[in-house]
Write a structure and sequence with these properties.
By secondary structure, the chain is mainly alpha-helical. The protein has a single domain, classed as Alpha/alpha barrel (Glycosyltransferase). Helix content is 43%, strand content 5%. The chain has a 4-stranded antiparallel beta sheet with strand order 3-4-7-8. It has a 3-stranded antiparallel beta sheet with strand order 9-10-11. It starts with 12 loop residues before the first helix and ends with a helix. The structure holds (2R)-3-hydroxy-2-(alpha-D-mannopyranosyloxy)propanoic acid. (2R)-3-hydroxy-2-(alpha-D-mannopyranosyloxy)propanoic acid binds next to helix 2. This is Mannosylglycerate hydrolase MGH1-like glycoside hydrolase domain-containing protein. Belongs to the glycosyl hydrolase 63 family. GO terms for molecular function: Glc3Man9GlcNAc2 oligosaccharide glucosidase activity. Keywords: Glycosidase, Hydrolase.
């Protein structure tokens, strides 16, 4: 099957690189890149990782700085915060630095941050930045600096976020990076929507309300954040109502552990313990495997129930080589990725990017945030996954349509996976940075 008809733009590589570079350059905040001016005016954890992956082609030095600045905001317990606040712009985003008051919490870094986390893609990003220009990285001691911090970050996930079965849990939808994913609906149903703090929505000045989480969801997000903060962000609240194993977080954790092995070996150390840890996480992820949907799903720790919905995050184990996965698993995931729920390669009108949520689900909304639209970071990860399993030619087919949509729509936050129409904010950093990577 062919991909859907696209406007006959044959993008000009030089002009596209220049446009994408202008976006990441324009969003540079001095030592890191904001995801988008306006909507996201601080440093976000996994955004910085994706941004660094693109920046390595433009300036390895700046890519290192992007990750160094995030790593230097690490908590004493090893956590890397979801957001590092820039005091110059504190009024522009809610919840603000004042809401978290991180300075008063034990073990917080000298800069204000949230107490939450985001998916652990960082070790892999550090490795990709290093491997692109190893001499430059070695000259600046990039890996030596990053390695102990990354080890501490993964230790936090294992010791503070993983229960006996060894799967990392998220305690807030924001931690998953896929905030309003249908995976969280049932768990959120038992979360009160009545925080003490007023619900502020500065985001609605920068994106249409129909493309953002609802006020009802925001009430629950604020309530959960207050609860976590009021327990000192200590991960020791036995009754926290939202504790979920997210497939994206766990798959990226395993992939990042393999990168930690590469980093350790590049530093002349033994990487075996990291490879064993990756294998352990993959084995633990068996609890998330849905054999009917042939995808990894979420597990609600409060009910012990699987959340049996297919999301693009459930395919992220494709980033792991076949010999790290259980026998037959890579083939099953490739079937799902290319089947009607995601890329629909044999369909009459296949998606040009994978939707964030099952294309066959009746409640998919192609314009609403993490409930259907396609995201450039997830599609970039999926293409890496296809390549990991030898489907380079298949992956290559998606590059031009993705790049075209990115340029035509002004580097949107996300797009309709059938029409390519842009949604959310524009001049979005990881869209631009990953465009640079796709073209490099
Ligand atoms: C979105 O999440 C933030 C909260 O972290 C928000 O909605 O305000 C998500 O798309 C998340 O994955 C992303 O890291 C963040 C910044 O781009 O925006």
């Amino acid at each position: 099957a062919t991909l859907p008809d696209r406007p006959a733009i044959v993008h000009d590589r030089v002009a596209t690189l220049a446009a994408a570079t202008a976006v990441v350059r324009g969003n540079w905040g001095g030592a890191y890149t904001v995801p988008a001016t306006g909507l996201y005016p601080h440093q976000w954890s996994w955004d910085s990782a994706f941004i660094a992956i693109g920046l390595r082609h433009l300036s390895p030095r700046r890519a290192q700085l992007e990750l160094d600045s995030l790593l230097s905001s690490q908590w004493a317990d090893g956590r890397l915060p979801q957001i590092v606040y820039d005091a110059r712009r504190d009024d522009d985003y809610a919840p603000s630095a004042a809401f978290w008051g991180s300075a008063d919490l034990p073990g917080s870094p000298p800069v204000p941050t949230t107490g939450l986390i985001q998916p652990p893609v960082h070790a892999w990003a550090v490795w990709l930045v290093h491997a692109h220009e190893p001499a430059e990285s070695a000259r600046r001691g990039f890996l030596e600096r990053a390695y102990p911090r990354l080890v501490a970050w993964h230790r936090y996930l294992r010791e503070r976020r993983a229960a006996q079965d060894g799967l990392a849990a998220v305690v807030h939808p924001w931690e998953s990076g896929t905030d309003n994913s249908p995976l969280w609906d049932d768990a959120l149903a038992r979360v009160p929507g009545t925080p003490r703090a007023p619900i502020e929505r500065p985001d609605l000045q920068h994106a249409d309300a129909s493309e953002r989480p609802s006020n009802k969801e925001y009430g629950k997000y604020f309530w959960l954040a207050e609860r976590y903060r009021d327990h000192g962000c200590s991960d020791a609240d036995p009754d926290h109502p939202f504790v979920v194993n997210d497939p994206t977080t766990n798959a990226l954790w395993a992939r990042a552990e393999l990168a930690l092995a590469d980093i350790a070996e590049a530093l002349g150390r033994d990487g075996a313990a990291h490879r064993a840890e990756a294998a352990r996480i993959v084995a633990a992820m068996e609890a998330l495997w849905d054999a009917d949907l042939e995808v990894y799903v979420a597990l609600d720790r409060r009910t012990g129930e699987l959340v049996r919905k297919a999301t693009v995050g459930g395919l992220m184990a494709l980033l792991l080589p076949a010999d790290v996965l259980p026998p037959g698993r890579a083939d099953a995931l490739l079937r799902t990725a290319q089947g009607p729920r995601f890329l629909d390669v044999d369909g009459a009108a296949p998606q040009f990017m994978a939707p964030s949520y099952d294309a066959t689900a009746p409640d998919l909304d192609p314009a609403l945030y993490w409930r259907g639209p396609a995201w450039f970071n997830m599609m970039w990860l999926l293409l890496e996954g296809l390549r990991t399993h030898g489907l380079d030619a298949r992956a290559e087919k998606y590059v031009d349509p993705m790049v075209e949509a990115a340029v035509r729509e002004g580097f949107p936050e996300y797009v309709n996976p059938w029409t390519g129409d842009g949604h959310g904010t524009r001049s979005f950093s990881w869209t631009a940075a990953l465009t640079v990577d796709l073209l490099s």
